[in-house]
């Protein structure tokens, strides 16, 4: 069971958009050292939409190799084509991922029965623990609790990343699916309350830049130490807010660049953080002790 702070890892790139393998290895080792509880490789924060099949597989393979069983690796293998999702999930299993995270099919707008059949087919095709991922604000597709309940009966569908920020939705999923079904926040701003309410962790953007503090906050919440968790989360709230000042992962990649951890590369149609937004995020990073000056 993977619980706690699970970083939705960015994919480091050079300014020409090519994957920066050395920086990728450095980030994985840094997260292990900082106490991150798990890594999502090539999730949507990792720019999965603009990585080709071979690149996608290669990033997952590299993260698995560098993590070297020190912390679990969840591979992002979702797609809006069921056959593509199966291929990516098979490859991730072959390459040693501990589990897979599958975003709902984007743009297609499938009905609930289509979502059920999509996830069921992937689960039956590949025997690896699979985590549903619901983020309707990005996909124009909402995986409803009654469909999650149906899918929770599939043995290797083990949990969901619920990124609506709707705590009542998370409570309903828990009631429908039981205590053994893993519920992760996909919304840093509400992750603390989700965990205090019985959730299992946070698949986090903020953990990219503040891994130790995110890990400590998540652990305190899972341990039931609400006062300590809230104290730590209050220090993280400016990051929860400003790492979404422009579409993710634009601000996070720029923040890591400012921190000297990656180059300033990102793939079109995304572009680096606008000059207008940079002073605000730089000030937030300084206020959180992540930049000097």
Automatic annotation (TrEMBL):
<keyword id="KW-0704">Schiff base</keyword>
<feature type="binding site">
    <location>
        <position position="203"/>
    </location>
    <ligand>
        <name>pyruvate</name>
    </ligand>
</feature>
<comment type="function">
    <text>Catalyzes the condensation of (S)-aspartate-beta-semialdehyde [(S)-ASA] and pyruvate to 4-hydroxy-tetrahydrodipicolinate (HTPA).</text>
</comment>
<dbReference type="GO" id="GO:0009089">
    <property type="term" value="P:lysine biosynthetic process via diaminopimelate"/>
</dbReference>
<feature type="active site" description="Proton donor/acceptor">
    <location>
        <position position="133"/>
    </location>
</feature>
<feature type="site" description="Part of a proton relay during catalysis">
    <location>
        <position position="107"/>
    </location>
</feature>
<keyword id="KW-0220">Diaminopimelate biosynthesis</keyword>
<comment type="pathway">
    <text>Amino-acid biosynthesis; L-lysine biosynthesis via DAP pathway; (S)-tetrahydrodipicolinate from L-aspartate: step 3/4.</text>
</comment>
<feature type="site" description="L-lysine inhibitor binding">
    <location>
        <position position="80"/>
    </location>
</feature>
<keyword id="KW-0456">Lyase</keyword>
<feature type="binding site">
    <location>
        <position position="45"/>
    </location>
    <ligand>
        <name>pyruvate</name>
    </ligand>
</feature>
<dbReference type="GO" id="GO:0005829">
    <property type="term" value="C:cytosol"/>
</dbReference>
<dbReference type="GO" id="GO:0019877">
    <property type="term" value="P:diaminopimelate biosynthetic process"/>
</dbReference>
<protein>
    <recommendedName>
        <fullName>4-hydroxy-tetrahydrodipicolinate synthase</fullName>
        <ecNumber>4.3.3.7</ecNumber>
    </recommendedName>
</protein>
<dbReference type="InterPro" id="IPR002220">
    <property type="entry name" value="DapA-like"/>
</dbReference>
<dbReference type="GO" id="GO:0008840">
    <property type="term" value="F:4-hydroxy-tetrahydrodipicolinate synthase activity"/>
</dbReference>
<feature type="site" description="L-lysine inhibitor binding; via carbonyl oxygen">
    <location>
        <position position="49"/>
    </location>
</feature>
<dbReference type="Pfam" id="PF00701">
    <property type="entry name" value="DHDPS"/>
</dbReference>
<dbReference type="InterPro" id="IPR005263">
    <property type="entry name" value="DapA"/>
</dbReference>
<dbReference type="InterPro" id="IPR013785">
    <property type="entry name" value="Aldolase_TIM"/>
</dbReference>
<feature type="site" description="L-lysine inhibitor binding">
    <location>
        <position position="106"/>
    </location>
</feature>
<comment type="similarity">
    <text>Belongs to the DapA family.</text>
</comment>
<dbReference type="InterPro" id="IPR020625">
    <property type="entry name" value="Schiff_base-form_aldolases_AS"/>
</dbReference>
<feature type="site" description="Part of a proton relay during catalysis">
    <location>
        <position position="44"/>
    </location>
</feature>
<comment type="subunit">
    <text>Homotetramer; dimer of dimers.</text>
</comment>
<keyword id="KW-0963">Cytoplasm</keyword>
<dbReference type="InterPro" id="IPR020624">
    <property type="entry name" value="Schiff_base-form_aldolases_CS"/>
</dbReference>
<feature type="active site" description="Schiff-base intermediate with substrate">
    <location>
        <position position="161"/>
    </location>
</feature>
<keyword id="KW-0457">Lysine biosynthesis</keyword>
<keyword id="KW-0028">Amino-acid biosynthesis</keyword>
<feature type="site" description="L-lysine inhibitor binding">
    <location>
        <position position="84"/>
    </location>
</feature>
């Amino acid at each position: 069971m993977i619980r706690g702070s699970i970083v939705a890892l960015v994919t480091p790139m050079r300014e020409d958009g090519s994957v920066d393998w050395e920086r990728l290895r450095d980030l994985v080792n840094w997260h292990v050292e900082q106490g991150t509880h798990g890594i999502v490789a090539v999730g949507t924060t990792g720019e999965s939409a603009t990585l080709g099949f071979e690149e996608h597989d290669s990033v997952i393979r590299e993260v698995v190799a560098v993590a070297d069983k020190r912390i679990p690796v969840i591979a992002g293998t979702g797609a809006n084509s069921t056959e593509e999702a199966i291929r990516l999930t098979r490859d991730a299993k072959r390459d040693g991922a501990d589990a897979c995270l599958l975003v709902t099919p984007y743009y297609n707008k499938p009905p609930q029965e289509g979502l059920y059949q999509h996830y069921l087919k992937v689960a039956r095709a590949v025997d690896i623990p699979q985590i549903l991922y619901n983020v309707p604000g990005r996909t124009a597709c909402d995986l409803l609790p009654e469909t999650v309940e149906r899918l929770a009966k599939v043995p290797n569908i083990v949990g969901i990343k619920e990124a609506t920020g709707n705590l009542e939705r998370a409570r309903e999923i828990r009631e429908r699916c039981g205590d053994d079904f893993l519920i992760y926040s996909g919304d840093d701003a509400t992750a603390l309350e989700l965990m205090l309410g019985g959730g299992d962790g946070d698949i986090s953007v903020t953990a990219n830049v503040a891994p130790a503090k995110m890990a400590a906050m998540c652990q305190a919440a899972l341990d039931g130490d609400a006062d300590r968790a809230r104290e730590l989360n209050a220090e993280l709230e400016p990051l929860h807010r400003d790492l979404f000042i422009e579409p993710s992962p634009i601000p996070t990649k720029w923040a890591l660049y400012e921190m000297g951890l990656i180059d300033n590369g990102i793939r079109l149609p995304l572009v680096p953080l606008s000059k207008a937004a940079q002073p605000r995020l730089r000030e937030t990073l300084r206020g959180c002790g992540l930049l000097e000056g």
